Amino acid sequence: MQSAVRERFGGATVTDAGEAGHARFRRPYWRSIQISGRRVKKIALFADVQNLYYTVRQAHGCHFNYSALWADVSRRGTIVEAYAYAIERGDPRQQQFQQILRKLGFTVKLKPYIQRSDGSAKGDWDVGITIDVLDAAARVDEVVLASGDGDFDLLLERVRAGGAEATAYGVPGLTAQSLIRAATRYVPVEGDLLLRG
Questions:
Q1: How far is the C-alpha of 132 from the C-alpha of 155, rounded, in Å?
Q2: Of 57, 63, 145, 177, which one is least surrounded by beta carbons within 10 A?
Q3: Left, alpha or beta for 31 (phi > 0: left; psi -120 to 50: alpha)?
Q4: pLDDT tens-digit profile of 10-40?
């Protein structure tokens, strides 16, 4: 299979064409950054705080290490966008944690926790994460999603179809197999990604 790459600068696209010249994907030419003549991968990072909290606690009885996540992702390129999605309950400890996330470099997005009259609760960020990922995927080389939620499998497939890599971080045994299969790369949440003690 021969691959033809055509670049058109001035605001256009890079096209990678496969067999019979059919374009497999189109992406903005400005996705990657050049530093000292070296191509640096641009990465957008998305953290599903609720999913990480509950799956790490269930599997390991500890907390997720967001600082280690940032360091691990940074080894592959430059994080140009980072979002952490959380629920706002007005708890001072949660607010302190959200401030730590901001200092790391995350933009923290909050949704109010809603307790229904029947006792059930609502506080789901799935649609918000999906919209933000799709928006960012056109601007970066790689999307990193820290979540084990299988609802995001089609999202990662769409990211890959658009030409970006899709990396999923999730807790082994608590990450949906469909999400793992949809990702370009799966990174198990273990070792340094756990905050013990």
A1: 11
A2: 177
A3: alpha
A4: 333 333 333 333 333 344 444 556 666 667 8
Contact 56, 146 (CB under 8 A): no
44-79 b/e with 16+ CB inside 10 Å = b? bbbbbbbbbeebbeebbeeebbbeebbebbeebbeb
Q: Can you tell me whether residue 12 is helix, strand or coil?
A: coil
| 40 contacts: CB under 8 Å, gap ≥ 6 | 32, 33, 34, 77, 78
- Cα(102)–Cα(106) distance, rounded to whole angstroms? 5
> Per DSSP, which regions of 107-178 are E strands?
107-112, 114-115, 121-122, 142-146, 165-170
Instruction: Specify the pTM.
Output: 0.80
What are the structural domains, with CATH classification, of the chain?
A: 1-30 (no CATH), 32-195 (3.40.50.1010)
